[in-house]
Amino acid sequence: MHSPELLKGTLQTIVLKVLKDHGKMYGYEITQRVKELSDGHILLTEGALYPALHKLEAEGLLNTETVSIGKRIRKYYTLTSPGKVQAKERVAEFVDFIQTMGSVLQVKLN
Amino acid sequence: MHSPELLKGTLQTIVLKVLKDHGKMYGYEITQRVKELSDGHILLTEGALYPALHKLEAEGLLNTETVSIGKRIRKYYTLTSPGKVQAKERVAEFVDFIQTMGSVLQVKLN
DNA sequence: GTCTAATACATAAATCACTTATGTATTGAT
DNA sequence: ATCAATACATAAGTGATTTATGTATTAGAC
User: Fold this and answer.
1) What are the chain B neighbours of A5 within 8 Å (beta carbons)?
2) I want to staple B65 with a disulfide (CB 3.0 to 4.6 A). Which of A26, A65, A109, B76 is the partner?
């Protein structure tokens, strides 16, 4: 894991983009996918993820569909149309931020 | 300005690296330099900067030298030896973080 | 056949960096 | 003279995230 400080403010961006790239997903699946994509470096905590999902849903960026797998419950999330727009915007904003930080820290990112 | 969320956790890294690159600097000067380097995108607030400087000093990463310019006071900060090491580590950590985020968000940074 | 880890959701209290607000005082510009 | 910029500082409030806790199912190890 990285110093978790840096991760602050990136959770929603990560969730939106991962959902955009992988379509319908449920919470636990998102944590696993992000763990995979980050090579074990980013471990989303449930205490952060679930409230974030609820918030994004309340803002109309996500739709939910609850499915029963045997006796276990899964809540699948998908992006709404505004959600797709937001995903794009958030990623663009992040890239922009990185560019700026590159200038300030005088580092090359590639 | 960017969404300020993303900036969280980067303040110490910025301060340490700017001090490493520009040598002896005082607080206000740091805000101006960062503003310049970031093309006006990153505006450090005093309420964040001064406490951060005090904290870094308390941790032994910075040395201070108070100078009177006429009747105005300036507190110049320089990196200590551990401060230089930290500057390097923090930047490396940030670059690492960016790399990881690039994988998760599937974006190319360059 | 039972115990542990993994799966899967959820919420509440505590933390902590940072914003916002406020304060003091000097200097330069109009 | 007045306002903006320079230059420091601290305290209250905010809010995303961590940590802690809770419930319940399923798969694998021994």
Assistant:
1) 8-9
2) B76
Among the listed residues A95, A65, A94, A96, the one whose alpha carbon sits nearest the alpha carbon of residue A79: A65
Q: Quick one: how far is CA B87 from the chain centroid?
A: 9
pTM: 0.92
Whole-number Cα distances in Å, A23 to A14, A26, A80, B16: 13, 10, 11, 41
Tokens matching residue A87: 């995903």
Within A1-110, residue ranges assigned H as helices are 11-22, 27-37, 46-58, 81-105
Residue B18 is inside which H or E element, if any? helix B11-22
In degrees, rounded to 5, the angle at the alpha carbon of residue A90 between the alpha carbons of residues B36 and B9 is 55
At B31-61, the pLDDT tens digits run: 999 999 999 999 999 999 999 999 999 999 9
